[in-house]
Amino acid sequence: MDIAQLGDRVLAGERRALARAITLVESSRADHRAQAAQLILDLSRKNDAQAIRIGLSGTPGVGKSTFIESFGMMLTAQGLRVAVLAVDPSSTRSGGSILGDKTRMERLSRDPNAFIRPSPSQSHLGGVARRTREAVALCEAAGFDVVLIETVGVGQSETVVAEMSDLFILLLAPAGGDELQGVKRGIMEMADIILVNKADGDLKSAAMRTCADYAGALRLLRKRPQDPEGYPRAMTVSALEENGLDKAWEDMQALVTWRREMGHFAGRRAEQAQYWFGEEVRHGLLAQLEREPLKGMMQALGARVAKGEVTPTIAADEIMALLGRS
Amino acid sequence: MDIAQLGDRVLAGERRALARAITLVESSRADHRAQAAQLILDLSRKNDAQAIRIGLSGTPGVGKSTFIESFGMMLTAQGLRVAVLAVDPSSTRSGGSILGDKTRMERLSRDPNAFIRPSPSQSHLGGVARRTREAVALCEAAGFDVVLIETVGVGQSETVVAEMSDLFILLLAPAGGDELQGVKRGIMEMADIILVNKADGDLKSAAMRTCADYAGALRLLRKRPQDPEGYPRAMTVSALEENGLDKAWEDMQALVTWRREMGHFAGRRAEQAQYWFGEEVRHGLLAQLEREPLKGMMQALGARVAKGEVTPTIAADEIMALLGRS
């Protein structure tokens, strides 16, 4: 594959080239990894376009697909180009990702100004996240104005999505009476904007109550230096009736504009690049455990540890000694 | 130091030897680490005594100190020997740990059948946890019947405490009306028994309501194979008035007895040993990043990554190549 040529075609915004480039960064083959690294490096030097990267988290049932479709269609109607990616470490098991079935977003997937890509199939969140981060950079180089990075609320996936996003949006459903709607405090603290969806029909008043609850909870959080007055904020939307989406987009743009002017936008991207550098190195170090000879050694020693024949510390010291750096 | 002799004195239950042995395992000096590993290995071979290791989590304000003192005094009054350890990664900053001030548990600290040890001073949870895990093994070898491992509810500390405990107890305070008492679902899923403290005076009815709420929430969780019928469970206690502590202890013993008979007790300890083996190895691999030459290389490259001069992936590849294992 001619990497320079592929890069030029991505920069020209060719969808097939973009899809092929993402397939390349998702590959775990060593030669593909090297080509992908070269491609990303080339593009980072040639590309000046900057998308707004929007992380979007929401558990199943909050209407995430409907929201992405309605929100995406609104953006493309304004002439903006929209890419949708996903971080879903469970996609391997389910045999397809949360975005694998494009019929979930039938209208958006047929829109020439939209590009939808399922989550890479990897069993570890770290692997999914590292590949998606590179796919985001590719979409940006391909001239997309908005890159939506979707995740389900499982474990640490919100954290890694926030580390590749300029904005982090939390999508919630109206809460029932005494229902346990446990949004973790850490997730709430990451959110720039909380959207309570399904503010339509019978659920409208429940959505407004839930929104008021979260607005109150957000006021209890300490103000962050990267936020202007009034952020983070909570608002209601109806993805079904396409209500409130324009207001949500206005608020996202206002926040981005303020952060750009204050230097927080570039500062956050610089911090994120350092974070991913550290992640890549940590992954590289730990990946040795998944390969021979370390893998077999760990299994053999692990069995002895479980039987109580050797203590965990002594066994670990043996491993480190074998690696020549105890 | 004569490690064999120290080990024999620990096995004989000498408190000063135990304190000295714990100081040894907490040391980060390489020669001390080697001696500590040898000591733990010796003791694991010579010791047959098995304590009940009880992990106890509770945020500040739930009355954890009062509970540990009352519960500990009840156990020592029954002739049992009780050790209290702590996992508190914040202890470095506060200049002393949550258990540093023994006046917090004045009666228990003067009890000859009790042994109280503050959290080791390390800035990383991983370091605190690995040392505390070894201290637990020392207390067990010293013939303590019950080892209480206390932690505050910060981040991942409950997880590591659960990985060194036979039972995991969550201590809660009565919840006020619309107060946000966010117990993370993951923490609740780890709990074997939830104790709602302060079921006394004005708070008694609130404690009973809170207990009923949590009992209801626990019923929604899937039954775990390691639990007999009726577990996990929630109950009220008053550490102040020393009410309900005997019932809590009975239930803990019943659970331990059942798990011993079903093989889950030994199975869990074997799994935990493998977990800590993996942790030690992962720590050993990542610890290289904190030492030269890697530390300086990471800083220099990190600065270039932040400026956008090199991509995170290429920079990480450079590090791995320098380590000779890309």
TrEMBL record, chains A, B:
GO terms for molecular function: GTP binding; GTPase activity; kinase activity. It comes from the Bacteria. InterPro entries: AAA+_ATPase (IPR003593), GTPase_ArgK (IPR005129), P-loop_NTPase (IPR027417). GO terms for cellular component: cytoplasm. Keywords: Kinase, Transferase. SMART domains: AAA. Residues 50-222 form the AAA+ ATPase domain. Belongs to the SIMIBI class G3E GTPase family. ArgK/MeaB subfamily. PANTHER family: METHYLMALONIC ACIDURIA TYPE A PROTEIN, MITOCHONDRIAL (PTHR23408:SF3), METHYLMALONYL-COA MUTASE (PTHR23408). This is LAO/AO transport system kinase. It comes from Thalassovita taeanensis. The lineage of its organism: Bacteria, Pseudomonadati, Pseudomonadota, Alphaproteobacteria, Rhodobacterales.
